[in-house]
Design a protein that fits this description.
It comes from Sphingobacterium faecale. Pfam families: adh_short. With 245 residues, the protein is an alpha/beta fold. It has a single domain, classed as Rossmann fold (3-Layer(aba) Sandwich), CATH 3.40.50.720. It has a 7-stranded parallel sheet with strand order 3-2-1-4-5-6-7, with helices on both faces. α1 crosses α8, α3 runs parallel beside α4 and α4 packs parallel to α5. The protein is globular. The structure holds NADPH dihydro-nicotinamide-adenine-dinucleotide phosphate.
């Protein structure tokens, strides 16, 4: 049985990971995000389909290092053995040329996508070191491999995730902890709506001419990555909608 901690589990890719891993009999799920109501309804939904899955959820803002430390330290004893960390919480805000960008948006992206991932990783790694099948999955992006018009700061944060994924792999090698980056192209989640601050029309237009990936597509990929034998690791995976340029 492996315990999986998923950040940003309240929607999109994170919620899909919980739904997919719940279909297997060998995972226990630790779910966190800021929206408690979403975590509760996800837990209820999973339990209605898979009553025996062990789930513990808690609210967490990954940008707050003190809160991250406190939340992990105060997990019930039976949830202190974490085997898998899925660093998924993240967002994009605004899609403007650098000179027109909103510096509050920049702070939000850097604080969540980069500093949040670092805070959670640093806090959870001591627990992962005790596991015999430890694995960190970092959700990067095609934006961590390329830069597109007006993507500037979001792309910079995902390039940082790309670098941190490589760095973690090197630093954690002596402890046998696997590290994998999953880098998706367009995935239809709340991501686009968050990016355009609730402008549904603009959010939908992003997918024009492309069948986007779903959260489940990414979650199924993660299920596969986690199923590989101990001596096999996928270090870095780019997964794109077939029609995305
Ligand atoms: P969603 O907006 O659907 O989900 C984002 C999740 O992150 C939510 O559960 C949200 O929960 C959580 N989150 C945001 N800020 C914080 C915070 N400060 N503390 C804790 N949790 C937070 O988008 P996706 O599922 O698409 O995004 C998941 C990841 O995938 C992100 O890292 C994103 O960059 C990446 N990605 C997405 C792509 C896409 O096209 N959708 C493409 C490539 C990568 P809550 O608001 O409740 O805190």
């Amino acid at each position: 049985m492996r315990t999986v901690l998923i950040t940003g589990a309240s929607s999109g890719i994170g919620a899909a990971c919980a739904q997919v891993l719940a279909t297997e009999s060998n995972y226990r799920l630790l779910l966190c995000a800021r929206r408690a109501d979403r975590l509760t309804s996800l837990t209820n939904e999973i339990h209605s389909l898979h009553p025996n899955v062990d789930i513990h959820s808690f609210t967490l803002d990954v940008r707050d290092n003190a809160e991250v430390k406190r939340a992990i330290a105060s997990l019930p004893t039976e949830w202190q053995n974490i085997d898998v960390l899925i660093n998924n919480a993240g967002l994009s805000q605004g899609l403007d040329a650098l000179q027109d960008g909103d510096t509050d948006d920049w702070d939000r992206m850097i604080d969540t996508n980069v500093k949040g991932l670092l805070y959670v990783s640093k806090t959870v790694i001591p627990l992962l070191k005790k596991s015999t099948r430890a694995h960190i999955i970092n959700i990067g992006s095609i934006a961590g491999k390329e830069v597109y018009p007006n993507g500037n700061v979001y792309c910079a944060t995902k390039h940082a995730v790309d670098a941190l994924n490589k760095a973690m792999r090197i630093d954690l090698l002596p402890f046998g902890i696997k590290v994998t980056a999953i880098n998706p192209g367009m995935v239809e989640t709340e991501f686009s709506e968050v990016r355009f601050k609730g402008d549904k029309e603009r959010a939908k237009n992003v997918y024009a001419g492309v069948v986007p990936l779903s959260g489940l597509d990414i979650a199924e990929t993660i299920r596969y990555v986690l199923s590989l034998p101990a001596h096999v690791n996928i270090n870095d995976l780019l997964i794109m909608p077939t029609a995305q340029a």
